Amino acid sequence: MKKNPPKPTGFGPVSWTNPRLRAVLYQFLAIGGTISLFTFFAMTARTNLENQHIASGFAFLNHTAGFGVIQTLIPYTEQSTYGRVFWVGLCNTLLVAVVGTVIAVALGFVIGVARLSNNWLVARLATVYVEILRNIPLLLQLFFWYFAILRPLPGPRDSIVLLPNVFLNNRGVVMPAIGTTQATLGFVLVTLIAVIVGLILRRRGMKRAIESGKANNLGRIALALIFGLPMLAIVALGTPFHTTPPTLETFNFVGGWQLLPEFIALTVGLSLYTAAFIAEIVRSGILAVSKGQTEAAYAIGLNNVQTLRLVIIPQALRVIVPPLTSQILNLTKNSSLAVAIAYPDLVSIFAGTVLNQTGQAIEVIAMTMGVYLVISLATSYAMNFYNARVAIVER
Amino acid sequence: MNNRLVAFLVGIVIGAATLYFFLPGPPTSFSTAAPSAETQAPSVKDAKPTAVAAATLDLVRSRGYLQCGVSQGLPGFSNPNDKGVWSGIDVDFCKAVAAAIFGDPAKVKYRPLSAKDRFTALQSGEIDLLSRNTTWTMSRDTSLGFDFAGIIYYDGQGFIVKKSSGITSASQLAGATICTQTGTTTELNMADYFRGRHMPYKVLAFEKNEESLSAYDNGRCDAYTTDASGLHAQKLILKNPDDHIVLPEIISKEPLGPLVRQGDAQWTDIVRWTLFALINAEDMGVTQANVEQMKNSDSPNIRRLLGTEGAYGDALGLNRTWAADAIKAVGNYGEIYDRTVGPETPLDIPRGLNALWKNGGLMYAPPIR
C-alpha cells in the first residue's frame, strides 16, 4: 500500500493491481459461483427426478386428499385438497405453539422466581423441577404424558363428571359447544366499547396521578365499567350465548367441544419442558440486577412484591427477553414431535401423510421448512420489537 | 497481501467451477441414485444401462451386500428377535435376492423403515430393494417412480375391536375412533369405507405401530385397523389377546410386494424372477432339502429352474444357479410361508389367497423357459 493513494474515481485503471476493481471482480465471481452452484443442484435434482419418473411441481396441492384428520380448526372433509391439509396442519401447529408458549412463559416466570425464593422448600422444589424436566428428552416426556393421561382415565361410558355437562374420559375433555344467539352481536359490541373506554379512563387516571402526585379512583371506575356494562347488556338483551350439551352415543360423546388427549399431552409436555429452561433464563435475568437495586427499593419503603414488580423485573427483562425468544422458537419447532403421539400437526399430516401419498418430498419438505422459517422469523421479529421497548434507554 | 492472495485463489476456483458447470450441460455423473454408474463400465455382458439409474446390480456387487428396506417390527413379515436377527417373509425374500446375486443369504443389510419414510429411502437410493409389506397401488407404481416386482402376499384390511364392545361387524363402527399408522393405504381405505357408507368416524394416525397399538390397548380408540395379517400378528402383543376380536370384513385389496426404483429394467427383472422362482419351486416340488438332488431331475422345467439346462441366469447378469441358490437359502414359497406366518408360527394364518393356483389360491408364476 502506498502512503497516500490517489482518491479513486470510478474503478480506476483496468489492471490486476487495482484493488477496487479486483474487489468488485471477486464479488461478482462469488455471486456467480453461488448462483451456479444452486442452479446445478436444482438441475441435478430435476434431471434425476425425471429419469426416475417421479412427479414434480405443485399441482398435487389441488388433488383430493382422501384421508380424515381428527382435529380440524377450519372446515375439512376427506374430499378436500392436499392444499387444505396444509392449512389444517398449520392451524393445529399454531394452536399448540400459542397455547404452549403462554403456559410455558407463565410457568417459567413463576418457577424462576421460586428458585430464588427465601423459602427453602419452595426454592428446592423449583430446583428439582428444573433439573428433572430439562434433563429428560422431550420425546420421552411426551410419551409419558400421553400414556399417563390415557391409562388411568375411564372410557366414555364411565366418564368422570367435572362440571355439569363437562366430562373427562380417555377421549379427552368434552364440554358443551357454545353457539351464538340474536343477542351475541350486541353483547360483543357493548363489551368492546366498555373495554376501550375503560382502558382510556385508566390511562388518563394514571397520567393524572403522576402529574398531581395524588391517587385517584379513575382506575376503579374503569374496572367497574368493563365488568358492569356487559352485565347490563345481558340484562337488557338476554343471554348472549347458548350451549349445546354433548350427548353420549354408541362410542363417544357427540356434539359439544372436545379437547383431545393428544392435544393436552403435547401442550402439557411442551410447556413443562420449555418452562424449565425459561425458569433458568428468568433466574439469570433477576440475578443480573445488582443487589443494590433491591436494597434501594427496600430503603424507599417498597415491599417484596412491589420491589419485584416495579424495580427488579423491568430491569431483568433486558436480560431475559433475547434468550426467551429462542425458547419460544424451540417450543414451536419441538411441536413437530406431535406425530409420535398422533396429534395432527403440520409435520404429521402434511410432511407425513401427504408426502407419503404423493411422494413429492422436495416440494412438501420445502413448504414445511418454509412455514417453520416464517413462524420463527415472525416470532423473532415480534420479540425484538418488544425487546426494543423494554431495553434500557441510555440517556 | 496474504488475504488478497487467498481471495484471488478462491475467485479462480469459483470461476473455474462456474465455467465447468455452465459449459458441459447437466453433469449426470453426480446423480444421487448411482454415483459412479456412468464412469464404471458395466461388467456384466447383458446389462442394459439406462440413462442414469443404471446397473443397481453392479452397485450391489461392488458394495458386497444388498441394502434391503424392511419394517420396524411386524411379526411374520420382518421382525428382529432379542439378538437383533431379522426374520419374516419379507426378510426371507431379501435373503433370497442376496442368495441369487451372491450365493450367500447373509449378504444383506436390513434398514428398518417407518411407513412414512420408506418411499423416500428407496427414491433416494438409500436402499436397493423395499421388501416391507407394501401395498401395490397405481400411484405408487406410476407417480412415485417405482416398479413393483410382484406380489408376495395377498392381504386385505380388517379391524380389531374389544369383545366387550359388542361389535360384530364393521358396519356397526359408525362414530368410532380408530387407531392406525400414518402414511399407509389403511388410512385411505378406511376413509373410503366410511365415506362410502356415510358413517362418521375419527382417525388417530400414529407414526409407529407400537404407539398406535398401545393407544388402542389403553382404550383411546374403539378399533384398530391394519392389514389382516398384521391384525393376527399384533393381536398377540395386546395385554389380553383373548379380549379382542378380529371383525370378519375385509374392506380392501392389499397385494403386498417388493418394489424397486423405476428405470433399471435388469434389477427389476432380478427381483421379479427371484420371487417367481420361489413360487415355481413350490409348484414343482423343489424344496430347500431336495434342491441339490432335483438338479439332476428328469423334468425339463426343474432343470431349467435350477440352471442345469439353459442359461437363464446369464440374461439376468447372475450365475446360472441363481434360483437354486435362492431356494437353498430360504426354501420355496410354501416353506417360507409356513415358517414365517403359517402353521409353524403362533400367527398360524391359513394359506387362503396365498395358496398356489392349483390349490385354489392366487399364487401363480410365469414359467422359466
In short:
The complex is a heterodimer of chains A (about 400) and B (about 375). Chain A is α+β, with helices and mostly antiparallel strands. Chain A has helices at about 20-50, 80-115, 120-135, 140-150, 185-210, 220-235, 260-285, 290-300, 305-335, 345-360, 360-390; strands spanning about 160-165, 165-170, 170-175, 175-180, 240-245, 245-250, 255, 255-260.
Query: How can the largest sheet of chain B be summarized?
Result: 5 strands, mixed
Element pattern of chain B in H and E: HHEEEHEHEHEEEEHEHEHEEEHHHHHH
| Class by alpha and beta content of chain A | alpha+beta
Broad structural category of chain B:
alpha/beta
Distance from first to last alpha carbon of chain B: 75 Å
C-alpha termini separation of chain A: 42 Å
Task: Describe this structure as you would to a colleague.
The complex is a heterodimer of chains A (about 400) and B (about 375). With about 400 residues, chain A is of the alpha+beta class. In chain A, about 65% of the residues lie in helices and about 5% in strands. Chain A has eleven helices and eight strands. In chain A, α4 crosses α7 and α5 packs antiparallel against α6. Chain B has about 375 residues and is α/β, with parallel strands linked by helices. Helices cover about 35% and strands about 15% of the residues of chain B. Chain B contains 14 helices and 14 strands. In chain B, strands 10-9-11-8-12 form a five-stranded mixed sheet. Chain B has a three-stranded parallel sheet with strand order 4-1-5. In chain B, a hairpin with a 5-residue loop joins β2 and β3. In chain B, α3 packs across α9, α3 packs antiparallel against α13 and α9 crosses α13.
